[in-house]
Amino acid sequence: MSIICPKCHHENSDDTLFCGKCGTQLPSIEDIEATKTIETPKEELTTGSTIVNRYEIIEELGKGGMGVVYRVADPLNPTRRVALKSIRRKLVQPELIDRFKAEFRVLTLLQHPNVAAAYDFESLPGALLRT
Question: What is the pTM of this model?
Answer without folding.
Answer: 0.55
